[in-house]
Design brief:
The structure holds two protein chains of two kinds.
Chain A (H helix, E strand, L loop, with lengths): L18 H15 L16 E6 L5 H12 L3 E6 L11 H10 L4 E6 L4 H8 L3 E7 L5 H15 L6 E5 L6 H12 L3 E5 L15 E3 L3 H4 L4 E4 L5 H4 L6 H8 L3 H4 L7 E3 L12 H4 L6 H20 L8
Parallel strand pairs in A: 1-2, 1-3, 3-4, 5-6, 5-8, 6-7, 8-9
Chain B lengths: L2 E11 L4 E10 L2 E6 L11 E3 L6 E4 L1 E6 L12 H10 L2 E6 L10 H14 L3 E4 L15 H7 L4 E2 L8 H14 L3 E3 L12 E2 L2 H6 L3 E2 L2 H17 L3 E3 L5 H12 L4 E5 L1 H5 L21 H13 L4 E2 L8 H4 L26 H10 L5 H8 L1 H7 L14 E11 L18 E11 L2 E5 L4 H4 L1
Parallel strand pairs in B: 1-4, 1-5, 6-7, 7-8, 9-10, 10-13, 11-12, 13-14, 14-15
Antiparallel strand pairs in B: 1-2, 2-3, 5-16, 16-17, 17-18
Helix pairs in contact in B: 4-6, 6-7, 7-9, 12-13
The chains are: A alpha/beta, B alpha/beta.
């Protein structure tokens, strides 16, 4: 599990990773997961390293998770958001980022509403870049934590059938998961209303359905995506009530999945819209386990991109 | 200087059916002799011999679609630098789009631009008027006054005239003034927030797509309106197979419809966006292989009349990302300004494309000379005795690669860096006056 088996300075997305790279991260995350279960939740692995969380879009889970991940590895973690930074004064992203880079951080974790912005930063800055979500493009650590959760619950990923339901067009979680699960050998189905299924998504290697029932049929994992209320304003769905009735995951629809199927959601949830509360809180739900695993996965990612020596604690 | 002589050059003007090794003599701003051995005996101290034997001599190129940024955005380009770039690219006539600041919706702006161009003394500048005041899509500009001030056509450029009633009035005005209406065909309601072509690549990249139908639906409506008013309608930068087919069908009915295509839409597809390169962001967006094939076929069969550069200089910061997390449109992407420079690379990119056999060379040359000249009704140009000496001489076989740093434009936003191109302009001449001389002898001999 040394860094030499992970040949990337940045984590910009899942698409450029090999299956081996993903397995390296997941294996290391399993090791780091034990740290969070100890009374003293800190190891000195990244002591002396500086991580900047540069979040230009609202986030609770991801930002906190990266912050905790960095701190549990003893890195110095600084978090910035758009409203409290000079971006609010009209500075360009590139100028803000170059100023941060000039303070010599080891890693900048970036979230931005523009797809591709981490790629642009990686080309122009000297530190490592970790993509924490870029527009509707990728959210690689979410897919990695989803894979880690599935692997732990199911013991494997290869050969599983995973149904991803909801707004595929605007979902970076969907794209990263299509790549990650596909590389690990799962069969991926995506399903949602036609207006929220992008033309050509099947060319990423998944099967697309415009109804959720056939996607859920026999699935091992049912992953539900958040429906943003903005979609209604743009006329892509008539209203959330109708969406819930035809596309929401409820107990009746879930019954078509395998009896031991698990239910996932990247959060934040709209209870009663894309997912019924009893399903979200039911015994098949692993939604909070995803969040727990998120910390371990991000510890692994920060470790691998930051160029630290071999982990000296388990 | 009494005469300029081009000896044993390959003169090509498809509009006159000319492609031959000839001598050409220019005197008093006009071509006075053209033919084999026509320059025999024309020599002496007062004669300037230009180009080597076998160099190509073409009518000066005409660009129907350039953004010269003056007045208002001189940090990107100004009329002097834009015309210098045009001259270096072999253009003798450049049509300037009205999306300046202020917008060219009044004779004051037109007159200012023409005055600047006169001072510069390079290629001719032909301003276009906006169609509506401020390009806002409602009240028409004073188009009659604009025509009298010297505009050659009208366009709201990057803003499509979407209201059908406004379009109808504008088309009637175009017919009355006998100038073409140039439409940027984009149903903005279908392209809100879009940064690239809608297709498999946009799905992969998670970027909001600009579907082909947003262009096609406007072209279809416009052709119906233009057929009703019998106006001259010119479609700017056609980018889809559907739009090419609509224009082809309209032409078959004899409508006075014309259209243009850009070099980048003939050469690139949306796959160029895979690395999120902001230099590949352009409007309309780069499409797919099938569209490129349709555009090339349309150019070859004459459905597409001309090649226009859509020269759109932007500074590096306009092309970078802005932190626009607070903007209403969350997928502002690449908040990069769309567009790329084109005046200096247009001819060499297309000569290379023609050399690969993808397009007939005669069609490429016609689409850069007589094609655009015909759209806006420029007369008296071409390669024949008595024509105005608007000429370009080039070494057509010179191979090189694109070097962004060497461009004369103030901006160098082009995605073609490092690409193989063909042909080097030796001299560009406007009405017998040298506006570009590769060997920089222009100053000495002027």
């Amino acid at each position: 599990m040394s860094q030499s088996s992970f040949p990337h300075r940045h984590l910009l997305g899942i698409e450029p990773l090999s299956k081996g790279d993903i397995v390296t991260i997941l294996d290391l995350a399993d090791t780091f997961a034990t740290i969070s279960e100890k009374p003293i939740k800190r190891v000195p692995t990244l002591r002396g390293k500086t991580v900047i969380n540069f979040f230009m879009e609202a986030s609770t889970r991801t930002r906190t998770s990266f912050e905790i991940a960095g701190k549990r590895l003893s890195a110095d973690v600084i978090s910035l958001s758009a409203s409290g930074s000079s971006v609010a004064k009209g500075e360009t992203l590139m100028d803000t980022a170059k100023n941060l880079d000039a303070m010599r951080p080891d890693v900048i974790v970036v979230r931005h509403s523009s797809a591709g912005s981490p790629h642009w930063l990686a080309k122009n800055l000297s530190c490592s870049i970790v993509n924490a979500g870029d527009g509707a493009h990728e959210h690689p650590t979410q897919a990695l934590l989803d894979c880690a959760t599935i692997r732990r619950e199911k013991g494997r990923i290869e050969g599983l059938t995973v149904a991803i339901l909801g707004d595929i067009t605007h979902s970076r979680v969907a794209r990263s998961n299509i790549h990650a699960l596909g590389k690990l050998g799962a069969k991926v189905r995506v399903a949602g209303p036609r207006t929220l299924l992008p033309e050509g998504i099947d060319r990423l290697g998944c099967e697309a359905f415009d109804r959720v029932e056939p996607a859920i049929e026999g699935a091992d994992v049912v992953m539900v995506l958040r429906l943003q209320s903005e979609r209604q304003a743009r006329g892509l769905i008539p209203n959330t009530r109708e969406y819930a009735r035809y596309f929401g995951l409820n107990a009746r629809r879930l019954a078509a999945a395998k009896p031991d199927a698990i239910v996932m959601h990247p959060g934040p949830m709209n209870r009663g819209v894309e997912i019924a509360p009893d399903v979200a809180d039911g015994e098949r739900s692993v939604i909070l386990d995803q969040v727990t695993y998120g910390v371990a996965v991000r510890m692994a990612v920060l470790y691998l991109v930051s160029g630290a020596p071999e982990p000296d604690g388990g | 200087m009494d005469a300029v002589v081009f000896r044993k050059v390959r003169a090509i003007d498809p509009a006159c059916g000319l492609d031959a090794l000839v001598d050409v003599v220019v005197e008093g701003g006009r071509i006075t002799r053209l033919g084999p051995e026509a320059a025999k005996g024309v020599e002496g101290e007062r004669v300037w011999e230009v180009g080597r034997e076998g160099a190509w001599l073409l009518p000066g190129l005409v660009d129907l679609h350039a953004h010269l940024r003056e007045p208002g955005q001189e940090y990107k380009e100004d009329i002097a630098s834009g015309l210098a770039a045009a001259a270096a690219g072999g253009f003798t006539d450049v049509c300037a789009m009205p999306n300046t600041s202020p917008v060219n919706d009044s004779p004051a702006v037109t007159e200012l631009m023409l005055e600047r161009a006169r001072t510069v003394g390079g290629p001719r500048l032909h301003p276009l008027s906006a169609i509506t005041v401020g390009q806002r899509g409602d009240a028409l500009c004073d188009l009659r006054a604009q025509r009298d001030a010297g505009v050659i056509a009208m366009s709201d450029d990057g803003r499509c005239v979407t209201r059908s009633d406004v379009m109808m009035s504008a088309l009637v005005a175009a017919r009355d003034l006998d100038i073409p209406l140039v439409q940027h065909a984009e149903d903005h309601a279908l392209t809100a927030g879009a940064v690239m072509h809608e297709g498999a690549v946009s799905a992969r990249l998670g970027l909001r797509g600009w579907p082909r139908v947003a262009e096609d639906v406007i072209v279809a409506r416009d052709l119906i309106l233009a057929s009703y008013t019998r106006s001259r309608y010119h479609l700017a930068h056609v980018s889809t197979r559907g739009a090419v087919e609509l224009v082809r069908e309209a032409k078959s009915r004899g409508l006075p419809v014309t259209c243009e295509v850009t070099p980048h839409h003939l050469l690139l597809t949306d796959a160029a966006l895979l690395g999120y390169d902001p230099l590949c962001r352009v409007n309309p967006p780069l499409r797919e292989d099938d569209d490129v094939a349709a555009l090339r076929a349309g150019l070859a069969d004459g459905t597409i009349d001309c090649i226009a550069t859509d020269h759109a200089p932007h500074s590096a910061s306009d092309k970078g990302y802005r932190s626009e997390a607070t903007r209403a449109s969350k997928e502002a992407l690449l908040a990069a300004a769309p567009g790329m420079v084109g005046l200096e690379l247009c001819l060499p990119l297309l000569l290379e494309l023609a050399a690969t056999g993808a397009l007939p060379i005669a069609r490429v040359i016609a689409a850069l000379t007589s094609g655009p000249a015909g759209v806006v009704g420029m007369e008296g140009r071409g390669l024949y005795e008595g024509a105005r000496a608007d000429l370009v001489v080039l070494d057509a076989d010179a191979r090189r690669t694109v070097d962004r740093g060497a461009l004369r434009s103030k901006s160098n936003n082009t995605p073609f860096e490092g690409r193989e191109i063909r042909g080097r302009v030796i001299v560009t001449m406007v009405g017998g006056r040298v506006v570009f001389d590769e060997s920089a002898r222009a100053e000495k001999n002027r």
